[in-house]
């Protein structure tokens, strides 16, 4: 029998009108939200199996991280302050080549802990050993859109093995874990995959009716290399290959022209804005206000904690709101309400699940987080959305709920052994030859 739960709090719905219900309540039965509105007059007589009185705290949709590599948490802090290509080719790829299923397991657990603790309920992951990642996501109770990343800088035989692995993974795991796990097909990037290989992946995505995910236009070097190799910038290159005829989520999209933004808007391509990673690697600043103005759905991603160096989406949220004000000399370039939508509603669009995720509305999934607003930095309580974007931090999250199940309650993790995960992550890192 499904348990019915009602939480009494200030409800930040992120619905069509960005409604905030100050003395409100959210109820859910099983994995679905069943009530959003004023708090029943008598909580003790409300007829729910459990009533949780958190008056004054903020309840909002779980945050959605639309680009990352969970297993790479093992490389956090290993190689900082380097240009992207040097960072990748000299530091990341040599160590990642040694990763095993066990390595990825503990790196993923470390990432899941961090995301649960900081309010992320859904994430996109592009990596290897994805069957291991899927099992960890299932056990932890998280929601994820998973991709077997495919780098094409290898022999044809290896490329076909990767495509076969990605296909088998998709067939085995898409819509599993009670629907919490879904899959995308993922060529790594235009500069690491030949046109022929990308075309093969697109054809397989079409056959399996799956969306596509790819790194695109992250650095000026990448764009220039694409023009040198193929005579086209990445956006036109991928358009020519037919990628955008399928639902597509691109990560980064830093170096874009106005014409390229028009192409992304034309095909309803979704963009994951990885503001911290792009700044740390000096990749540049994506033209987010222009994309939003032209109707491109822009969500937030952390990228890996090797290039971030954490998975605290609240940092992305604040930076997305303030960075674009500064670089555009425009204090309303990305208002707080729009930034919060990037972390929630537009994130749901980024994972192609906007009908079920991204806002607190009846019928949607009960993916919720509660912030402890009984702290000085939330007061005076002028504007809850402003406080969430500009004042809050991931450490303020006290409860994390996915599909109606508490993964963290009163700051206590319920589905992962944090102490063991930290120990094992350090242990497996020591096995790598550096």
Explain how this protein is built:
- With 434 residues, the protein is an alpha/beta fold.
- The chain has 15 helices and 16 strands.
- The strands form 3 sheets. Strands 3-2-1-4-13-14-15-16 form an 8-stranded mixed beta sheet, with helices on one face.
- The radius of gyration is 21 Å and the shape is globular.
- The termini are far apart.
Itemize the secondary structure elements and their pairings.
Layout: E1 4-12, E2 20-29, E3 32-38, E4 50-61, E5 63-65, H1 84-96, H2 101-117, E6 120-127, H3 130-140, E7 143-150, H4 156-173, E8 181-187, H5 195-208, E9 212-216, H6 220-230, H7 234-241, E10 248-252, H8 258-266, E11 270-273, H9 275-280, H10 288-293, E12 298-300, H11 313-328, H12 336-343, H13 345-350, E13 368-371, H14 384-391, E14 397-402, E15 405-409, E16 412-413, H15 418-429
Parallel strand pairs: 1-4, 5-6, 6-7, 7-8, 9-10, 10-11, 11-12
Antiparallel strand pairs: 1-2, 2-3, 4-13, 13-14, 14-15, 15-16
